Structure formats: structure tokens, C-alpha cells
Amino acid sequence: MRETNFPAWYHRLAIMTIGKDRDVHPADFDQDISDLEESEEDSDMVDACECSDSDSECECPLPEDESDSREERKRELREERKCQLVERECLQEYESNREMHVQAASELLQQSQIPGHSPRLALLAGSHFRLHSADYVHYCYDSELCSTKYVEFNRLPPLDDDNYDYTQPPARDAEIAGHFYFDSRTSRSFRPFSPPQLAGQKEYRIKTQSDDFVSDSDEIVSDSDEIVFQFIGDDYLTMTVGRELVHINDAQVALAPEVFKFVGIRTGLNLYERAKTWKVARQQREKAIHARRGSEA
């Protein structure tokens, strides 16, 4: 038997590949270099190779034969993590900008609202809103599951009417339902509720319900989890959910907040044109205030 010291990672790969009669794949190294640093396991040496004790020359490959591949894999993982970090930071900035846009809409609504007179909302049934949250990106980001988050609201046809005409608009007070989607791990429906009639800061607390289109994570999700909506206007809303309804990254569990707040922007809305409209409205409002103050002086 050839006396040599093999690192533990090499011994593990030898068993894996020889037993399955296959070559070493780059991902085979990931278990030992997940932290991208040399682990204690690297220094644990195996006393000898697996060859039988004979006069023939040992044909087991040396660790050096795979060390270059392992180092290359470490470089690849470092680059992947750098790219993922940049992607996450860019996405967080994008989400923050959307949050600021909705906050501006909320402030404009409050400034222009006549006390006791809230704007009337359009029909909510059939609407679709894209959801944004910088906190969600920070604590739940997964580069392989980065998808469009949304919430949508649907009308409920009468249970006793098989000939219900979907081409006709529903009554304004007819109950609606819907569901939200964060990624393939997290999606829930919510129970029917009476749609809001007026825009504002009022909170609407709605229970979720189980269905076949639910998270595939191992988390146990209650059938009575609550989500909270605020309908700021026809084109904007906020949606708040508890942390049990999101899939938090393992490294962030201890730091994640108890609730996650999302802003919703109606799909298809031109934010640039809307921002220009707001700017004109603010300028007109400021002129009116100055004119009134001038007449009072």
C-alpha cells in the first residue's frame, strides 16, 4: 500500500465518483468550499489510499490531480457571489424607487384631499398590481427565483347562477377575492371581502386561505394568516404580511422584521407620465397658495 496523506475532501470525491463510475463535476466541490475558505476538513488527512497492499504500483490519482479543478471552482463561486450581490443591490435600489413613488402618491392624496371627502375608487375586480419591497429583496432574495411579485383581485360569480355574464361589470359592492404571488415558494389566495369604495389610509384586514397553489417550502402556514391592504388610489396600494408568509433566507432569519410591507402599482401604469402630472399639480397648488396669501396680505 502506498503511504500518503490525502485531504478529506479528496477522499469524499473519490468515493462519490469511483462508486458511480463518473468524472468529477465542478459542483462536487461545493460541499467543502461553500464558505469559500479553507475549512478544517481540508487539513484532516486520510492515512492512505484505497489500493490493496501489493507489489504493483498504486494507480490512485493524487489530490493534486483535482486541486486545480477545485481552485477553479472556488474562483467561479466567488464571481457568482459577487454578481449576485451586485444584482441584489441593484434590485433593492429599484424597489426603493418604487416605494418612494407610492409614498409620493400617498402624500399627494393627503395634501389634495378635502377633509371628509375621499376620492371614489374604480372597480377593483379584475385589477392586477405589481408588488415591490426593498426589505423583501434584502431578506428573501434568491437569484434563481427572482420573479415578478404581484397581487390580483377577481370577481366572484353568484353560486346559484350558471349563466353569469362576465362581460357585464359587477356591482360595486359585490364581494371580490384574489391571490398574491412572490415566487414559486410563496403564493396564497385570500378570502372574499367587500371591496373598498373610497381611497385613503384605511386598513383592510383580510384572511388568507389554503389552496393548491401554495408555497412549496417546509414552513407550516396557517389557514388564517392575515394580510393588510391600504388602497391609496386607483393605481396604488400597500400590502403588509407577516414574516410567516415569506421565505426568509436562512442567514437572515434572526434579523428579518416581523412584518414585510409591499407597495403595489397597477400593471401598465406609466410612472414617468404620472410623475410629470404630479409635478404640474404641485406647481399649480403652490401658485394657488401664494396667490391666496397675497390677496390676504
* Helix run count: 5
**Any idea what the CATH architecture of the largest domain is?**
Beta Barrel
**Sheet bearing the most strands, described?**
8 strands, antiparallel, barrel
- Approximately how much beta-strand content do the residues carry? 15-25%
Principal-axis shape equals extended
Q: What's the N-to-C terminus distance?
A: 104 Å
- Unreliable parts: 37-48, 212-221
Structural class: alpha+beta
* CATH classification, class level of the largest domain: Mainly Beta
The quaternary structure here is single chain
What's the order of the H and E elements? EHHEHEHEEEEEEEH
Give the fraction of residues assigned to helices.
25-40%
Domains counted in the coordinates: how many? 2
- According to CATH, the fold-level topology of the largest domain is Lipocalin
Number of strands: 10
How large is the radius of gyration?
29 Å
Overall mean confidence score, pLDDT:
75
Q: How would you write the strand order of the largest sheet?
A: 3-4-5-6-7-8-9-10
Provide a short characterization of the protein structure:
With 297 residues, the chain is α+β, with helices and mostly antiparallel strands. It has five helices and ten strands, in the order E-H-H-E-H-E-H-E-E-E-E-E-E-E-H. A hairpin with a 2-residue loop joins strand 5 and strand 6 (186-193).
